[in-house]
Amino acid sequence: MRVKKFGTAFLCILAVGTLASCGSKTKEGTKTNEKGKLVVQFVPTNNDGTMEAKTKPFGDYLSKALGREVSITLATDYSTIVEAMASKQVDIGIMPPAAYVQARDMKAAEAILTSQLGDTDLKTGLPIEGKLTNTFKGEVLVKSDSTMKELTDLKGKKIATLSPNSASGYIYPVAELKDAGVDPTTQASLTTVNDIPSEMTSVLNGQMDAAFVFEGARNVFGRAFPNNNLFKDLKVFSSCYFFSNSV
Question: For this UniProt entry, which residues form the secretion signal (predicted)?
């Protein structure tokens, strides 16, 4: 989990540093040095309330480092950060790939950086020490004792998903299932939940048969399940498409 947190924090610092070093220009072309409040917003990887407590000290750190007021807020979902960028309520948005595409198409955002996260061994699900990557994959998780073998076995099953705007939590797994001949929107039961720990819980307790998550999620959220060994209790049923990290 520290790897993903560090990736987001590092991206935020660089993005703020990049924009803070660029003043605006007057009609005569003279660069000004305006230092008003900088508003940064990002989409948290979970909604358990722990991220809110960490935004203030991080904002205080950036304010001191940049010599200007920095306000960090959390987006409630993938669409609100796009809306905030479009309405100019947010100066810097750290968002997942699908949200960025939407914001870019609305001419509300332009990517200046992408995050690098710790790479994951596709066989073990564990991080590869010292290796970073600009992309990641989606995963379909099921219980370790599941007898399903093919993607088509998900037909008629109950699947936990994230927002329809989530690349790994909805868009790409749904696309891959359709490529395999199963339309999960009509041939399975999809249930949207708040975050990945909730998805995992629903599979562990048998409420759901599968969950759409991002690559390495069992490692990232392992501490949220002190009574479970996620690598023993859950397995990767399928991996899908590579796509960009947050921007």
Answer: 1-20
